[in-house]
Amino acid sequence: MIKLHQFARTWGIPNLSHFCTKLETYLRINKLPYTIVETLPLKAPRGKLPYIEDGDQKFSDSRVIVNYLKATYGDNDTALLSPEQQGIARAYERLLEEHLYWASMFTRWNYTDENWQTNKQAIFSGLPPVARDLAATIYRMKIKSQIKGHGLGRLTQEETFQLGKEDIESLANFLGTKPYFMGKSPTSLDASAYGVLVNTLGCPIESPLKNYALGKQNLVDYCQRMQAEFFPELPWGGN
To answer: Tell me: the pLDDT tens digits for 3-58?
Structure first.
């Protein structure tokens, strides 16, 4: 059985990590059995979560993991989507994971002290005080550097949020009234979309980006539907 290594549940959503949420959602969409191993990324492959163990094999990075799962257990997207639709889904996946994700990370690690303390408590509270503060400081420096390396961290707050709002607008327009992003059935794009969106509008991290996303009722309804369908054990809290 697949072992999914990820952060502990918190905030009333599947995971405080966009990509842990994405991967667990993918497993549930595709009805792949798994067990959860709660951990921190201190000794994780590539230094981040999630990662999986499947038999004697270990895979990290959600993109690599999903590709492995598709190759090993079947790719439902190929059956559900035309080549053109697959291209569109991949483009929106990149928008979510390579851009909106970083705007969301900015709100947690580099925006207000209140947000940082909320984030720090959720991630590191299980460690002894000295180790907690040291690990939090090291990871904050590391992630702030990554945000700067991406490019968003070099912009003003207003510029960062404006670009993130453009992503939200595009997603809301593309989803429209569809139940899932590519139509009537969930695909791997929905795993990515739910993972990033619920970690933007469904968690206790406050920002203009969250407020803008909450103003898109179809995105709020989408996150509620996804959580009710694939994580019924987690009643929607609407943080």
So the answer is: 999 999 999 999 999 999 999 999 999 999 999 999 999 889 999 999 999 999 99
- In this structure, are residues 195 and 6 in contact, taking their beta carbons and an 8 Å threshold? no
DSSP structure string for 20-68 = HHHHHHHHHHTT--EEEEE--GGGSGGG-S-EEEETTEEEESHHHHHHH
Alpha-carbon distance 100 to 169, whole Å?
A: 11
Domain of 207, in residue numbers:
2-230
Q: Is residue 136 part of a domain?
A: yes
Residues 36, 8: contact at Cβ < 8 Å? no
Which of helix, strand or coil describes residue 177?
coil
Closest C-alpha to 119, from 195, 204, 202: 204
Burial of 41 (0-12, 13-18, 19+ CB in 10 A): buried
pLDDT at residue 239 in the model? 61
Question: d(Cα 84, Cα 87) in Å, to the nearest integer?
Answer: 5
Total number of domains in the chain: 1
Q: What is the CATH classification number for the domain harbouring 223?
A: 1.20.1050.10
- Whether 94 is in a domain gets the answer yes
